[in-house]
Amino acid sequence: MANTTLEAGSATMFRPGTSDTEIEASALKAMRRRKTLVRFWQIAILVFVIGMWELSSNMQWIDPFFYSSPSGVVQRLYEWATEGTTEGSLWYNLWVTMEEALIGFFAGSITGVFVGIGLGRNRFLSDIFSVYIKAINSIPRVVLAPIFIMIMGLGLPSKVALAFIMVFFVVFANAFQGVREADRNMIANARILGASDWQVTRTVVIPSAMSWIFASLHVSFGFAIIGAIVGEFVGARFGIGQLISIAKGTFDAAGMFAAILLVMVVTLFAEYIMTLIENRLAKWRPQQHLDTQ
């Protein structure tokens, strides 16, 4: 039995003697109601923005030549999907960009996690390599694109290298900091119980750093896409970045927005998949309740 107060948009008072089951059911109902309200406003804002964009273009409040319109963007996507682009099939160009981004993402993520955990657990090595990591990290990523293309050519390797660099430092920094933020008391207790360095790393440090690592993975795929597209924009034969470059050169605003829309959809889908994986691998974490204030 309990006597408590829950907030879910507005305060809900419970009578003395209200059962825990009733309180839990009310809390779940409030959370579902709040989730529905959030989804409604997300859709409403999207519809309003698209509607205002279309209206402004039709009423000449903005110049359609430079800003296009939602209907023009959809039409360009339909033309690309059914008739292809000047650089071949839309789906082939999309696959080229995704292949570059995926290879760079997985290679950069895996390397960043291992290097971040390794240096985070070894203070001596981290002190040695920290100055070099900071020096390389200070270089703007986009200026590396022409260097990689000059060295590796216009094909896949140069775009993968740029995507790798974009992802590596994000994941490395979070993994390194996550290891350093591990609970020292838990590490000390594990050592008292006779755990080896590897056992401490595997059972205490890595689980403690998982939240940091997944936080970086949520944004790093977007960086991988950026790396691939920037590389294609600088020089490529195929890819979404090449389509954007061609649209820019021909003042095709609808084509530019259509390519950007494709990238947004793919990135959001990847974020959704990443969330599913995180929820499955991190079942041990306590469920986080929504902040309803």
From TrEMBL:
<dbReference type="Pfam" id="PF00528">
    <property type="entry name" value="BPD_transp_1"/>
</dbReference>
<dbReference type="GO" id="GO:0055085">
    <property type="term" value="P:transmembrane transport"/>
</dbReference>
<dbReference type="InterPro" id="IPR000515">
    <property type="entry name" value="MetI-like"/>
</dbReference>
<feature type="transmembrane region" description="Helical">
    <location>
        <begin position="212"/>
        <end position="234"/>
    </location>
</feature>
<feature type="transmembrane region" description="Helical">
    <location>
        <begin position="101"/>
        <end position="119"/>
    </location>
</feature>
<feature type="domain" description="ABC transmembrane type-1">
    <location>
        <begin position="94"/>
        <end position="274"/>
    </location>
</feature>
<keyword id="KW-1133">Transmembrane helix</keyword>
<keyword id="KW-0813">Transport</keyword>
<dbReference type="InterPro" id="IPR035906">
    <property type="entry name" value="MetI-like_sf"/>
</dbReference>
<feature type="transmembrane region" description="Helical">
    <location>
        <begin position="37"/>
        <end position="55"/>
    </location>
</feature>
<feature type="transmembrane region" description="Helical">
    <location>
        <begin position="254"/>
        <end position="277"/>
    </location>
</feature>
<keyword id="KW-0472">Membrane</keyword>
<dbReference type="GO" id="GO:0005886">
    <property type="term" value="C:plasma membrane"/>
</dbReference>
<feature type="transmembrane region" description="Helical">
    <location>
        <begin position="131"/>
        <end position="154"/>
    </location>
</feature>
<protein>
    <submittedName>
        <fullName>ABC transporter permease</fullName>
    </submittedName>
</protein>
<keyword id="KW-0812">Transmembrane</keyword>
<comment type="similarity">
    <text>Belongs to the binding-protein-dependent transport system permease family.</text>
</comment>
<feature type="transmembrane region" description="Helical">
    <location>
        <begin position="160"/>
        <end position="179"/>
    </location>
</feature>
<keyword id="KW-1003">Cell membrane</keyword>
